[in-house]
User: Which sequence fits this backbone?
């Protein structure tokens, strides 16, 4: 009984402070574990090694999307997406087509924000194409374009489940540093 009360107190602390103390069993992970023996150990080991790189890229990409959304909304208001001077008709049409495709598939749509359907390359184009807004946040449009291109290249193996070579792990870390250094 004492242990159960302690577990409940720890649950409350985790919830209040948005912490994960690694105590809880994930039901989805438990369900997937049933199939783990059928997956080669080498692939599971690769997945574990790749997880931190995925987390880095996921966090960075979400940060960049928020930066784009917030900066353009600050400049033009909430209807910035509709401004053809901010988002090219091709990018807008491609994003809206991806959104429609997801709606038509019958799965839960990941977002109602069309920017969430832009590719990483398109995010870079939106940033460099709106340098009047982003120029005050970054040191150089050419550097931002280069860094975004490097990150986009590194994104491929991360997003498509192939291991990053040791040099590419270093390159990812340096590219993330380069990104934030441009904002200093």
Assistant:
């Amino acid at each position: 009984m004492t242990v159960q009360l302690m577990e409940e107190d720890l649950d409350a602390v985790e919830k209040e402070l948005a912490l994960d103390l690694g105590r809880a069993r994930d039901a989805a992970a438990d369900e997937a574990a049933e199939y783990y023996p059928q997956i080669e150990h080498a692939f599971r080991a690769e997945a574990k090694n790749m997880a931190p790189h995925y987390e880095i890229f996921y966090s960075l990409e979400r940060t960049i999307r928020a930066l784009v959304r917030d900066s353009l909304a600050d400049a033009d208001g909430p209807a910035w997406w509709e401004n053809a001077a901010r988002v090219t008709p091709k990018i807008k049409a491609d994003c809206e087509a991806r959104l429609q495709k997801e709606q038509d598939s019958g799965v839960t749509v990941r977002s109602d924000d069309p920017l969430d359907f832009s590719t990483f390359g398109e995010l870079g184009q939106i940033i460099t194409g709106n340098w009047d807004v982003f120029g005050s946040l970054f040191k150089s449009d050419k550097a931002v374009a280069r860094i975004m291109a490097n990150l986009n290249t590194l994104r491929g193996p991360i997003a498509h489940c192939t291991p990053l070579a040791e040099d590419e792990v270093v390159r990812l870390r340096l590219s993330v540093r380069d990104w934030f250094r441009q904002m200093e």
Remarks:
- The chain is about 70% helix and 0% strand.
